[in-house]
Amino acid sequence: MDVAESRGRRLVAWIREGLQVPISAATLVVGSAAIALVILGPLAVVAAHGFTPFERIVAAFRSDATAIVLLTGMATGIAAIGVGFSIYKRMPSKRAREQALAGAILGIQGLVLGALFLWLRAGDPDTFSRHFLNFEKWEGYGGAFVRGAKNTVMLAFVGEAGGIVLGLVLAVLVLSERRVVRAPARTYINFFRGTPLIWQLSVFYFGFSIGLGFRLSAFTVAMIVFALNTGAYAAEVFRAGIQSIERGQMEAARSLGLTYMQSMRYAIVPQAIRRVIPPLMNEFVILIKDTSLVVVLGLLEREYDLFTVARQGYSETFNATLFVGAAIGYLVVTLPLIGAVNAVERRLRSGLVSVV
Questions:
Q1: pTM above threshold 0.90
Q2: What is the DSSP letter of 139?
Q3: 144, 242: one domain
């Protein structure tokens, strides 16, 4: 009899556990549905109405369909919050607990975003759409934005490539045991890290190129300044990477008869490069955004970067939708790079990338 009761209790527990796991997964689905309704729902309504002219965006955002979608998403989020927080502690496995908790968190996000959109509906979306979502103003600027994206990438690529070479040299000099070798390199690094990039662009162009008679175009000066500035930051990245290599590596190389520079070249730097790849890629992403500072220089039309294209378009149309186009252009360029940085970091952590 006791054996039968024990088996019965185990069967009931097994059935209960089997029911709890699908509930946690359903909570995750409900939370995902909440945030999807709040974000994709209004977007679908706007797409159904059309994005041009901008009055259609306003009408769609203020329509009853958008209100219904937002309220439905908020109600779904509340359900996910209630169920998720009430059951996650009772889940039999870590995975089930994470699913329940994730569903509740997604429900919170959907609830907050839904409330935010409802609050925006009560404001003045007409004025905002006229100035920032008037996509008809993009007409005729497609080629300029494509050319601006190419120039932006060129400025950043040349600046990053030159900065990496310069930064590696500076890092080796900074790590020298001789103060007379370290001092000039440290002075250079502190100067370029301690002064604003916009100041460097202005002084190098207006001061050196115009004032001293060096006939260089603003675009060329910008590439040089970006390389000099990036070199200072890359030097610190390389320095940290080199110092992260175990001291025994240098001692072993020197014990084999290699000089300091030979030890750095053949033993230390190749190991350090692997460790500095992610931060250098991050610096490249940052530099892409910093290229917008060339707006202070007098670029030729064929040399315009993304931000300069947007500013020129704004001066012609008096509409800020061109700046939205520039933001989209920057995202198109930087998001794949950010994804590449994350992928490289994961591969380096897993040990799948060999030492260069």
A1: no
A2: T
A3: yes
